[in-house]
């Protein structure tokens, strides 16, 4: 004889099963929903990181614009040169040339910092710049200025690379471009 479940009790079991299935669906739906929320949150964090980096690059560019504007004024008006330059004993023409050399170096450094030049491209441009006598004089006269730059900064690493290039250029001007630092920042 088969065991029979009364109808009332069967209805309660059916309701319990239905409720259990509903909870299981809700549990898995919450897991799926939670994973989707986490994916959205991770995507938002990636976008925020990219935006922060872009704002940083924009700030670097703006700071450079301000610096270049001041240099342009100094180059155009020699009476301002004494206020912006710590180099002494220079003729007006020489001071203007060294300020412009600084501007050229700064432009290359900025291009690297904002991603316009990778490390190897930066080194290539700097190698060419190092062959310029005015830049070489600027580099020599500003050696003390670079000592205050934190050793771990991009500018310090670039400066160290230029120092090596200048030494190589003095040691062997015909083959100085073959060897050199290849350490990326």
Q: Please, could you describe this protein's structure?
A:
With 185 residues, the chain is mainly alpha-helical. It is built from seven helices and no strands. It has one domain. It starts with 6 loop residues before the first helix and ends in a 14-residue tail after the last helix.
Concise structural overview:
This protein has helices at residues 7-76, 78-84, 92-113, 119-130, 133-141, 143-146, 154-171.
* Residue-averaged pLDDT: 82
> What is the radius of gyration?
33 Å
- N-C termini distance: 85 Å
Q: Give the % helix.
A: over 70%
Hey, roughly how much beta strand do the residues contain?
under 5%
Number of domains: 1
Q: What characterizes the major β-sheet?
A: none
Task: Note the run of SSEs as H and E.
Answer: HHHHHHH
Backbone structural class: mainly alpha
Tell me the total number of β-strands. 0
State the helix count.
Answer: 7
Uncertain segments are none
What general form does the structure show? elongated
Keywords:
185 residues, mainly alpha, 7 helices, 77% helix, 0% strand
Task: Please specify the SSE layout and strand pairing.
Layout: H1 7-76, H2 78-84, H3 92-113, H4 119-130, H5 133-141, H6 143-146, H7 154-171
Helix pairs in contact: 1-2, 1-3, 3-4, 3-5, 4-7
């Amino acid at each position: 004889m088969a065991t029979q479940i009364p109808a009332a009790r069967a209805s309660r079991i059916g309701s319990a099963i239905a409720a259990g299935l509903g909870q299981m669906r809700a549990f898995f739906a919450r897991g799926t929903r939670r994973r989707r929320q986490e994916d959205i949150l991770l995507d938002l964090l990636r976008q925020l990181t990219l935006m922060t980096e872009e704002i940083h690059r924009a700030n670097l560019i703006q700071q450079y614009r301000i610096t270049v504007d001041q240099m342009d004024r100094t180059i155009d008006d020699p009476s301002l040169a004494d206020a912006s330059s710590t180099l002494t004993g220079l003729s007006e023409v020489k001071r203007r040339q060294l300020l412009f050399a600084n501007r050229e170096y700064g432009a290359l450094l900025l291009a690297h910092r904002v991603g316009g030049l990778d490390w190897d491209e930066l080194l290539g441009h700097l190698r060419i710049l190092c062959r310029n006598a005015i830049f070489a004089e600027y580099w020599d006269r500003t050696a003390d200025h670079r000592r205050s730059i934190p050793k771990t900064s991009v500018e310090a690493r670039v400066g160290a690379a230029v120092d090596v290039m200048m030494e190589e250029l003095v040691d062997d001007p015909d083959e100085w471009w073959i060897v050199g630092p290849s350490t990326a920042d």
